[in-house]
């Protein structure tokens, strides 16, 4: 089948041809006719299946056929909600390419960039807006965006919006739209809250399910390095000395981890840039553009920041940290081996990540081949760990390490009350007087234990000495009466 067989308008086909689109993917083949027929759609598809074109192409055609009222100007007739800025920009770029030879206009409404620029684009007019929930709500509150004329709503990567806490905002946005509309809903997974939302906003939808999330493409070569803790950076540096790794997307669990890995790679002359939520929009876009052009060989990213990264011919995906959600592993490695090409997915796993590895292998239904010939092997195999039952959370291991140190370091333990067979030294010297610094020496002079008698407070004349209590109590003997 070709795109010509899907009843797509000639001007859109021209735009697709310019982008070298020839054969529709399975989700495009099933979704495009349903959307053109005006049906609601539930798409269960993971990253890399071509779902952007599956909803964008028919939306462009439907809006082209339904001309805007020239008297009222352009109104927002389609809203596409996405979880991240990168994904919104990616979709916007794709729609602009597909609609190049039509009169349909689109703009992206995202945080991290000047709102004034977006306001000007909205004033100029847009048929389609691609937005992240936060910035869109800001503009709705400021009455800069009016959604009462929206005809087609798209929720892309709804499960990610749930993970990021956007579902309440999404529901608030939907409440601003007409109840009579066409809704297209895409999600790689279907947790209970997403299933509940589907039932509340979709009307008799066509369900399109492509490549279950638990499966990984056969054309992706997967491998796992079991290694000692603290050796991952060394292994990554060694691995990237292989120049056949033309481009690599490296995943870390945290933003700080992404920055640290990037810094260490640059130290050994491996060009790398990081992309995560703490980076400015310009920095993130610059890093992505450099990676796509080949100016940067390695892009280090967190999961959320990586959403929307669409890089053709990505040779390698490297999991510096294994994800604690097994479905995320499938999303990550699905970024290589696209469009029928082969790809390589390499994962590093230390002792604390063994439970994550087991969950991943259970989900995908197979064991990931282990690379044993490397410089930093794990001292104990997963089988040994099972036998010894020593797999514990990182915090528990840290506490155990501290306990071990306290048991083995005598400086950390209090001395026993009788630690020596030697008799305690006498606190008096040979003269019978107490030694200086002993408890006896520090006793008050009035105590009988002292060998010295208190001095008399009277002088040899019998008169009280000046400054004594006796002197203070009586008058001076030299005062005349």
Automatic annotation (TrEMBL):
EC number of the protein: 3.6.4.13
Ranges for domain Helicase C-terminal: 238-379
InterPro entries to which the protein is assigned, alphabetical: DEAD/DEAH_box_helicase_dom (IPR011545), DEAD/DEAH_RhlB (IPR044742), DEAD_box_RNA_helicase (IPR050079), Helicase_ATP-bd (IPR014001), Helicase_C-like (IPR001650), P-loop_NTPase (IPR027417), RNA-helicase_DEAD-box_CS (IPR000629), RNA_helicase_DEAD_Q_motif (IPR014014)
UniProt superkingdom: Bacteria
A Pfam family that the UniProt record links to this protein: DEAD
Entry-linked SUPFAM superfamilies: P-loop containing nucleoside triphosphate hydrolases (SSF52540)
Similarity-based family: Belongs to the DEAD box helicase family.
UniProt feature, compositional bias: Polar residues: 437-462
Keyword set includes Transit peptide: no
Motif (Q motif): 1-29
CDD domains: DEADc, SF2_C_DEAD
This protein's name: ATP-dependent RNA helicase CshA
Catalytic activity: ATP + H2O = ADP + phosphate + H(+)
Domain (DEAD-box RNA helicase Q): residue spans on this chain: 1-29
GO molecular function list: ATP binding; hydrolase activity; RNA binding; RNA helicase activity
Keywords: ATP-binding, Cytoplasm, Helicase, Hydrolase, Nucleotide-binding
Domain Helicase ATP-binding: 32-208
Residues covered by region (Disordered): 374-481
GO CC annotations on file: cytosol
Organism: Candidatus Pristimantibacillus lignocellulolyticus
